[in-house]
Design a protein that fits this description.
By secondary structure, the protein is mainly α. It is built from 31 helices and no strands. 61% of the residues lie in helices and 0% in strands. The longest helix has 53 residues, at 169-221.
Length: 553
């Protein structure tokens, strides 16, 4: 039918020159042609026929197959190129053409395997793309190599084909026998172990039950003995209690050299002219009208003294005494009036409330009098152990302990007299070794010493007393160790420092020590005199030699 086509029809055998030209173009434009697909409809340009559609499609398929065979025979490199991967091979083109002619769809490999493994194959699955039915050994082809051989031998012998994708009954029976034999051998061993474990558990339970019965019987028979043993265990020293045991007075060993330092402080505080001596609770507690100690005055002065200088407390107490300072007068005052009197005192708002509440408690519980015990005083608002102890000593002369403030706590720890973290623990440790006769004086002594060390206006008095005392070198070392600025202390009135005062007194060793500390040689007082001028005026030859010599031995 191909030879009887009209004009423009393809020849039965295309010219080799045309195929060679197409092959060279494909190999030259290989990257571009790799993404192209040459469908079978491209040959419609060359076919213009009035024949039926089926004949035309059959002619196209035959022509495409012939073109493929000719191209492979002429240019072998084309089939190996990348274009051959994108363009279907001639055999594949002819197969697809036949599928298009028959109106069939492509069957995937998975459907083939399903069809092969199934027992009954349907008529639709038998129509393969090439129009042929499945071979007789289609199921064998889908099996593995070993099973394929066994199945082929069975088929050749004429035996019925067996689906070997599943294990046979013989195999399962053999495996079951082996498992059963293993279980039979292991069962007696497991039973023996279980029996031994159960026997051991039973024995342990019997022993524990017998012990519990014996303990219950013994406890029921000896209740009194058990109570006695409990009391003895509680009282035994081996069991430590969590509560801190207070230190008893006289139970500690005193530190080395404490007596020398204490006597030196007593000597420095011989003249009682520091603020605590004239503005403390003992001084402010005196009633000027009667000349007697007023216990309520002493209590109020101590309540105002916390975190406040004694000079400010003295001013507040003077104004309150002018108004009339008694329990009844405080209760009659308003909060604003009382607060205005103590407005310069630190935390005056809280102290106003505490004084009013304390006056109410004294009026209701103690008949307007200050109690004489430490416990009752500590029940008053704003009153702690330190205030209570000092109030008992100042108002009634009762010495129940040592009142320790923060400055005393710092100094005693620096002197290694105690090793504590709070003033209350310092008090306990100090009472543990300090003699009782010194309990009433140590507060006033060291509070005044602390004021002389910290307050610049009082420091020059303390430095001069250190120079004039019996042990000036030890005294200067002590106050410097406790934090006093010895070399920078200057009298505001005269402009005299410690070095000028020591030169005026003719203290050679003290001058040497002050120069070692760092006192300036060229410092001058308000008159304009230096230390060397004072030494020459006093005709102290040794001091003149020391001050003229820049190098101090």
């Amino acid at each position: 039918g191909i030879g009887s086509r009209g004009s423009g029809a393809l020849r039965t055998r295309p010219a080799p020159s045309r195929l060679l030209f197409i092959a060279t173009l494909v190999s030259a434009f290989r990257p571009i042609c790799a993404f192209l697909w040459i469908p079978a409809s491209i040959f419609s340009r060359f076919t213009q026929s009035t024949q039926p559609r089926a004949a035309v499609e059959h002619s196209r398929a035959s022509v495409s197959s012939r073109l493929g065979r000719i191209s492979r025979s002429i240019v072998p490199s084309v089939s190996l190129s990348t274009v051959s991967q994108a363009v279907p091979t001639p055999s594949f083109i002819s197969r697809s053409m036949t599928m298009q002619m028959n109106g069939e769809n492509k069957v995937s490999g998975r459907r083939k395997r399903k069809a092969a493994t199934s027992v009954g194959i349907s008529e639709e699955s038998q129509n393969l793309p090439d129009g042929k039915g499945p071979p007789q050994d289609a199921g064998i082809a889908m099996l593995g190599p070993q099973r394929k051989r066994r199945q082929a031998t069975k088929v050749s012998e004429g035996a019925n084909a067996v689906d070997e994708t599943k294990p046979t009954k013989k195999r399962t029976y053999q495996r079951a026998r082996k498992v059963k034999q293993e279980d039979d051998t292991l069962e007696p061993m497991v039973k023996k172990e279980d029996d031994s474990l159960t026997m051991m558990v039973k024995k342990e339970e019997e022993v524990t039950m017998s012990q519990c019965k014996d303990e219950i019987n013994s406890s029921a028979a000896d209740d009194n003995k058990l109570e006695d043993s409990k009391s003895s265990v509680e009282a035994s020293p081996e069991k430590k209690s969590r509560k801190r045991v207070p230190i008893q007075p006289g139970s500690l060993k005193p530190p080395k050299g404490w007596r020398d330092i204490y006597d030196l402080v007593v000597e420095l505080r011989k003249e009682r002219d520091f603020p605590v001596d004239w503005a403390g609770s003992e001084a402010l507690g005196l009633n000027e009208e009667t000349g007697m100690m007023d216990e309520f005055h002493a209590l109020v002065a101590l309540m105002l003294s916390s975190q406040t200088k004694d000079q400010v407390v003295a001013e507040a107490m003077i104004t309150m005494k002018k108004r009339g300072l008694t329990v009844d007068s405080v209760l009659e005052m308003s909060d604003k009036e009382l607060d205005s009197m103590i407005s310069k005192v630190g935390f005056h708002n809280n102290k106003t409330k505490f004084i009013k509440q304390a006056a109410m408690i004294l009026k209701e519980k103690h008949g307007g009098r200050v109690p004489r015990t430490l416990e009752e005083l500590c029940e008053l608002p704003g009153v702690g152990p330190k205030m209570a102890l000092i109030t008992l000593k100042a108002a009634f002369g009762i010495i129940s302990g040592i009142g320790v403030d923060t400055h005393m706590h710092r100094m005693f720890n620096e002197l290694k007299w105690v090793n504590s973290s709070t003033p209350e623990k310092t008090r306990e440790q100090l009472e543990g070794w300090l003699p009782y006769e010194e309990w009433g004086n140590i507060n006033v002594l060291f509070v005044g010493l602390g004021q002389g060390i910290q307050q610049p206006a009082e420091r020059i008095k303390l430095v001069r007393r250190c120079i004039d005392c019996s042990k000036p070198l030890e005294a200067i070392k002590l106050i410097k160790f406790l934090g006093a600025d010895v070399k920078g202390t200057v009298d505001k009135e005269t402009g005299e420092n410690a070095l000028l005062y020591a030169c005026r007194q003719g203290k050679v060793e003290v001058v040497k020590q002050l120069l070692r500390i760092g006192c300036k040689r060229d410092h001058r007082n308000t008159i304009g005199e230096s230390a060397l001028d004072i030494a020459r005026k006093q005709q102290y030859e040794e001091l003149i030699a020391i001050l003229e010599n820049k190098k101090l031995n």
